[in-house]
Amino acid sequence: GIACCSISNSYHFSSLWWETEMLAAEHNLVVMNFVNTLAFVAHSGGSKRVYGTNPMAFGWPRPNTQPLVWDQASSAMARGDMQILARDGKQLPGPGYAVDRNGQPTLDPAEGVDGAQLTFGGHKGTCLALMVELLAGALTGSPLAVEGEKWEAERKGGFDGGPTKQGQFVLVIDPKVAGKELTAKKAEMLFGLILAQDGARLPAERRYAIRKKTPKEGVLIPESLHSTVMKLVQTSANL
């Protein structure tokens, strides 16, 4: 009723939710998914990069509806979100997101990208980042976050920001085998209690709703992103 997949030296495959959702929706499996990245994030109490943003995802199949799925980084902010703020000239929402390269707290996302990001919830997020690093890095025999950039630099003759080789660990559980007769009913009872509260929603509900709208309404993007894309298009046309 339980199986795991240990993937070593794989390129980072973007969002974890896609395959987590697929395994839960199409195969009715409970899913836990982990991947490590290059070192961008400091350990709680420290200021030097030790971990990647080290995302994790969880999927739970549901009868006659889409599965519950969440996908989140162990850092207080996804690196891509911090880079977007820097691109758009905006500040971080507050302290606790990053330190500059001197280890000082900063509200400047560009300094945070250049320095070190912080885990969410202090030591609690750090424990999750550590767990992901051990499962996706050490257990799979892949480069740790602190080894990734060095490995890439040696392979390419100088790190160029391209794809990195990291690890991924996937654990799946068949609730019909490992669970009990009332497993699904218990889960739905819990979801019902949550949804009965005004303002509460389950993870992935917003994504499912937006997914129905975008084929008809399209996707709004910031003007700054459109400008960046058009510059890249023009650069490619001139090659």
Please characterize this protein's 3D structure.
- By secondary structure, the chain is of the alpha+beta class.
- 41% of the residues lie in helices and 18% in strands.
- It has 9 helices and 9 strands.
- The mean pLDDT is 90.
SS strand fraction = 15-25%
Secondary structure tally: strands: 9
Oligomer: single chain
The share of residues in helices is: 40-55%
Rg is 20 Å
Largest sheet: 5 strands, antiparallel
Shape by Cα distribution: globular
Brief sketch in words of this structure:
With about 240 residues, the chain is of the alpha+beta class. Helix content is about 40%, strand content about 20%.
What structural keywords apply?
239 residues, 9 helices, alpha+beta
Could you outline the blueprint of secondary structure elements for this entry?
Blueprint: E1 2-11, H1 17-27, E2 30-35, E3 41-42, E4 49-51, E5 56-60, E6 68-72, H2 79-87, E7 98-99, H3 109-114, E8 116-117, H4 123-138, H5 145-156, E9 165-173, H6 175-178, H7 183-195, H8 205-217, H9 223-237
Antiparallel strand pairs: 1-9, 2-5, 2-9, 3-4, 5-6, 7-8
